[in-house]
Design a protein that fits this description.
- The structure holds two protein chains of two kinds.
- Chain A is an alpha+beta fold.
- Chain A is built from eight helices and 21 strands.
- Chain A folds into two domains: 5-224, P-loop containing nucleotide triphosphate hydrolases (Rossmann fold), CATH 3.40.50.300; 238-242 and 274-357, Beta Barrel (OB fold (Dihydrolipoamide Acetyltransferase, E2P)).
- Chain B is mainly α.
- Chain B has a single domain (4-224), classed as Orthogonal Bundle (MetI-like fold), CATH 1.10.3720.
- Chain B has eleven helices and no strands.
- In chain B, helix 1 (4-37) runs antiparallel to helix 8 (145-160) and helix 3 (58-69) crosses helix 5 (91-115).
- Chain B is globular, with a radius of gyration of 20 Å.
- The chains are: A alpha+beta, B mainly alpha.
- Chains A and B meet through strand 7 of A and helix 6 and helix 7 of B.
Chain lengths: 359, 228
Amino acid sequence: MSSGICFHFSLPLGEFNLEIDTEIPGQGVTALFGRSGSGKTSLLRCIAGLEKPPLAFLRFNGEIWHDTGQGLFVPPQQRSIGYVFQEGVLFPHLRARENLLFGFKRTPKLQQIESLQRVVDLLGLHNLLQRYPYQLSGGEKQRVAIGRALLNNPRLLLMDEPMASLDRSHKKEIIPYLECLHRSTNIPIIYVTHDPEELVRVADRLLLIEAGRLVAQGALEEMMARVDLPISRDYDAGAIISARILEHDEEFHLTRVGFKGGELTIAAIDQPVGNSIRIRIHAKDVSLALDPPGPTSILNILPAQVMEMQAHGRGRMVIRLEVGGVPVLARITQKSQHRLGLEPGSKVYAQIKSVALLA
Amino acid sequence: MLSESDLTALFITLKLASVTTLILMLFGTPFAWWLARTRWRFKFLLEALVALPLVLPPTVLGFYLLVALGPHGPIGGLLEALGGYSLAFTFTGLVVGSVFYSLPFVIQPLQNAFSAIEERTLEAASTLRATALDRFFSVVLPMTRSGVITAATLGFAHTIGEFGVVLMIGGSIPGETQVLSIAIYDHVESLEYTQAHWLSAALLIFSFLVLFLVYRMNQRQCEQGTRP
């Protein structure tokens, strides 16, 4: 049987139609990314079976869940999924513990793989179990909702902007749990978000959705390094690079990391040497020079080649560089491009002002 | 104190109210659920019909029921033709009348309580393996508990206080259709004020006790925080 999630939906959504036909792998975190109102949530609801589009086909790991052509529809309660709503949607008449066990109790014995203990540990719910939902903060509610979905022993976990209704501090509280979840489960996750920061922290792959259409899809690193997508216009645009910790410099509080294209010196990371990490170089933090610059405060200067350029209007542009085969984005002005005479193939030095650690 | 015929009237009243409430809750709950969830455009027609007994004088309702259920009415006639008996002036006839008369008092609180449940809550339950029936019993009913209790209480209490409909289709046959309110009326007509006092006081205290218990239960539930 073919593994993966294959779907085709056609659903009228007011001003436009949701019209998506694609296939995603049955593992890792796939993000549905796009602006608010682009149809991401509707797509997720179609996958869950909460929405019944007039035209639908959905196959999960070889099992047909929805096929309007054959008049076949498996209702949500028979799909073994976990669904996390934007606002949690806990049952107000049940304590956190009973909320957590709602789906678990209804799971056939043989499929009860998850345990309350493990989920409580994973999401730090020890002190919340006896509370009613109205006694929980937004972040706590959302953690219980995620736990409840996990304890449903899902074969597919669907998350609809689980952090959209939270303020910044509560987001910070949830993100580590999500990253932890990502590492500790092999259930495929489909994650809806419009927040680029969330996207780069949780996703492995992404489906870029605009006005109900699939604009592009691919691995996160590959997509974040493209200059032709709307994400590259974001203030926060920037390539993601997998690296390994080489050495710690205690004196200056720095860490040296290596990646396929060379080495970088970044702010100290509290992880042992040899660990794999993901880092992000924001396009706005990369400037370009034709010659190796003289003495400068910038620690990371790497030889690079211009691969592709895209003007984004208002005098700005994004350039895709390659550093030893690894893509890096740089945002410069069109004037600088003119002055340096940059074009695809140009050899430059990329001066990297700061590097962000992802996970 | 209460005479034997008064006690019989009391028993008939309680029996009538219990049977009526049971029927209304049994059939009213799914109907109210449907009214609360349907997007049918002519739903308002049914809502208006349900609310009719609120504004109609009970004698009007009783009169039409008498005509319909009597031996020459469409329903009573049909029953007689089938070898049964017409429902006018029988306990069964009273039950039919009471069900119509108390309908809005049961349907409206139920419908309001059910409407307050958000679709997403039910969707959450369906993604957690709960079938439609399971969702109703494990999510909807516990969440609308106070609405359900209110509906049952109002249905019960309102049936006990019924007079006009009973008078029209039940008359005052002791042991069959003579309920408390009619018994009181009969006492007053015969100038037996002491008897009327006893019965009226009993009815007053009973009604107050029922409402007292319901309101206290609702308040407890709010304090427990089981409602958002």
